Amino acid sequence: MKPYENIRLDKDSTFHLYIQLYEKIREYILDEQIKEKEKLPPMRQLAELLSVNVVTVVKAYEMLEKEGYIYKKIGSGTFVTPRIGQEASDIASEKYPLDEDLRLMDRGQIQIKDHMYSFASATPTPDLFPVGDFQDLLNEVLNRDKGNAFGYQESQGYYALRESLVTYMKEYNIDTKTENIQIISGAQQGIDVIAKAFVNHGDVVILEKPTYSGAIATFKSRGAILVDVPMETDGIHISLLEESIKTHKPKVIYLMPNFQNPTGYSYSNEKKQKILTMAEKYNVLVIEDDYLSDLSFYDNNNTTLKSLDKKDLIIYIKSFSKIFMPGLRLGFLVLPTRAYHRILAAKHASDISTSGLIQRAFDLYLRKGIWKKHIHYMECIYRERFDIMKNVIEKYILPLGVQCQLPQGGLNFWLCLNEGYSSNQLYSRAAKKNVLLAPGSLFFTSENDSCCFRLSIAAIYPEEIEPAILILADVIQEYMGKGIERKNQNDSYSPLL
Amino acid sequence: MKPYENIRLDKDSTFHLYIQLYEKIREYILDEQIKEKEKLPPMRQLAELLSVNVVTVVKAYEMLEKEGYIYKKIGSGTFVTPRIGQEASDIASEKYPLDEDLRLMDRGQIQIKDHMYSFASATPTPDLFPVGDFQDLLNEVLNRDKGNAFGYQESQGYYALRESLVTYMKEYNIDTKTENIQIISGAQQGIDVIAKAFVNHGDVVILEKPTYSGAIATFKSRGAILVDVPMETDGIHISLLEESIKTHKPKVIYLMPNFQNPTGYSYSNEKKQKILTMAEKYNVLVIEDDYLSDLSFYDNNNTTLKSLDKKDLIIYIKSFSKIFMPGLRLGFLVLPTRAYHRILAAKHASDISTSGLIQRAFDLYLRKGIWKKHIHYMECIYRERFDIMKNVIEKYILPLGVQCQLPQGGLNFWLCLNEGYSSNQLYSRAAKKNVLLAPGSLFFTSENDSCCFRLSIAAIYPEEIEPAILILADVIQEYMGKGIERKNQNDSYSPLL
Asked: Cα distance from A465 to chain B (closest Cα, Å)?
């Protein structure tokens, strides 16, 4: 099968296999190793030839089709588009309803169509943002500081904001100093900067399994070796973690101890203590990504590792994306003193400094205490959604035999179909009925599919939750019914109700 | 010399040797391998033991002193601070007038004291920023878009802004499309994202010699092997460049073809064409960092590589830091189509997206044509400074035997003392007289010192230029007089006048 048999895909690359495949085939088309109007191999056949999952080929073909390089003829296969300009994009305009890159979903990067119910995005809807307050503060800053608000800021961050954050942290029982605070342009940059400072090619990083897709991408991009340790409902599997530390001597361990993403599970206090003990014993840097500990609805177990950390072992990442506004592009790190210089150099090499204007406005937001009012407001909003969600999952989803350990707070619910079912498939089926979910494969370092999936309530309105879950229940039932039972395919059938 | 003889410094590390040394000695102090009140080895002796430049030890000691770990007793040496809290920082408060990290200077990260003349910073002064106009636009955006201005933006960038940039680029004879534009949080992030996308551990990157320190830091941080090719007054040394490409097969080549930083030199059209030919012939990605091509005062030779690039070979980085406001944290890339996917993934893993609010306001700034008025204003301002600077350098500095190829535009002047003189030394001497310059060592991949230095006019007012240059001329004369001639040390002596 020339030239396809020459394709070599690199599983260790930062780039998804389907992107590598897309690039390769496009190259062949552009330099005419594959001629115009030529038929491409059937997807399954190409997947076998390259020893990859068929999904990889599907996604590569989709991208090529979307960009007009190839087109499908119903019933006869996929062909290279003739080289006559406009015609190509006309053919391409009829494209799959599937999203081109599932991974972008996790942080709200997908285009959600009207009349879609989205449990996929963990990004709050714009109507929740304190825009009016913030606009007043922006103007206050500009009237006060004029051009200084647009000069370079110190790489470590605007001093007054670091002061405000020291005070803010006291409310969370974290005792720190301005010197130990590093301002970042959002939590994703926090992970990136830490990786730059401490993780080199070939170093081992330990992650939870499943974990946040953005962390996977960043550590992979550093050329790190990723080792994952399973999450249990009370936190990471401790003895496996210790074993992994001993075996692999990781440079860093990346954890989300409260309302973990995607599972929603929180660590028990016992496990939190054990993590601290291990961090000291094995002299390994632990990253605590705290994106949600503020949102505990039923449980006061949302102590952070950092608040328990008396020996300056933990790098703490705090994001305001879920509680304030994701577009702020602002967060901060609380650093062990020993980490300070490396982090500062890495931040400087990343983007020199975070927007001074936003830092100054957010400083006033904290100083004037407006944040307290807003956090309370967000708690109320999210708690309403959370309660409805819990109820309807219990009522409509769990009876179908779907597994879910309901969380005590946060925005995410992690559900699992029986072994052998595919959440990629479930995603496609649900998307056709206008319900979006986040398939489990997003959250694993290597698996291309999983029977689990995440539902998030950040971007769905309370009145949409029940209707959307009812649709999803139907889709699950139809899928599981077809797959295993095959006895009853009508929509109202529910074996466990 | 226990425990110092156990210190191993890694010259290939991302971290400067002095930071590694600082960390090591601090570790010894903290775990009491070096006891309180113990004398540290003389700097020269330690430098010999570790086979490093004495400057490395000086800077490490300075950092330790600044943080209170050690203190100096005049005439008797350097000692470990007794462990009694406050006392330490009292001792530490008498510190060198030298800046702790020269590298931070290049992008205005130093604290400039009052009554200092700064030729060191390449960052414009805040009074030049169009703050009023921008404030109006921010309000217009917030009133129009409300919360949407604070949601996640597309990783590739706000669509309307990409449209405006396509139009803006036409004024620079660059013909591109919205799909080929990637918004970034400033030029430094542009370099970082490109490095993430294309440079892996062990890959070769070719740079100009000297070059921008932020690029050196970023490529080093990727674990790249840096190969530098000398700059000539009409651009990079072309035959050495070709040889380097053949020998090293670089992943990328990083160039500033107009008003190069730090030299101020621009490439001849012939060299620009040759670069394009080589990029195609050797299939190597060329990065063009265009931070200043707008500021041509006397020469119309500021064509960009990208405008000549008919074969989609160049990645073009455009920053607005010098022309608009550095604190915008906004810039963009014009990408070859083949680079798009990798760049997008790298941007997403870096900080997900650039501030939507700033993107939206800047879009209006371009759409309403306000930028044209402002660029014209900046040209006038900078040209006045440029003319004065050229005159006073010709009048007071060149006659001292200092070499300088005066540039045709831009903000930087590159001057060289005779071989064997140290611009680090000159920096210290000038700083004591309140004149700051950027020593050449900032701009080299490996040299710790250089006889050359950079003077920038971005952050100095027109009326300060002549007095500051007069002081500098005195300092140079005293230094060069002492160093070589030794015959005449009185301040007014000038052998060539």
From this structure: 21
Number of H helices, E strands in chain A: 16, 16
Look up the pTM and report it: 0.78
A349 has a chain B CB within 8 A of its CB: yes
Could you give the ipTM of this predicted complex? 0.77
Task: Tell me the pLDDT tens digit for each residue of A37-88.
Answer: 889 999 989 999 999 988 899 888 988 887 667 888 767 888 887 654 333 3
Non-local (6+) Cβ contacts of A254 within 8 A are A191, A205, A206, A207, A208, A211, A215, A219, A287, A289
Residue-wise pLDDT tens digits, A402-444:
999 999 889 999 999 999 999 999 999 998 899 999 999 999 9
Distances (CA, A) of B480 to B55, B391, B434: 20, 22, 19
The Cα–Cα gap between A127 and A120 comes to 18
Where are the strands (E) in A211-266, listed by range? 225-232, 235-236, 252-255
CA nearest to A431, candidates A110, A123, A58: A110
- Partner-chain residue, chosen from B108, B146, B351, that has the shortest CB–CB distance to A329: B351
In angstroms, the CA B231 to CA B450 distance is: 15
| φ and ψ at residue A31, rounded to 5 degrees | -95, 20
pLDDT at B108 over 50: no
* DSSP per position, B348-368: HHHHSS--HHHHHHHHHHHHT
Q: Evaluate if residue B199 carries a pLDDT over 90.
A: yes
**Binary contact (B352, A154; C-beta < 8 A):** no
Helix or strand or coil: residue A409? strand
Q: Return d(Cα B443, Cα B261) in angstroms, integer.
A: 9
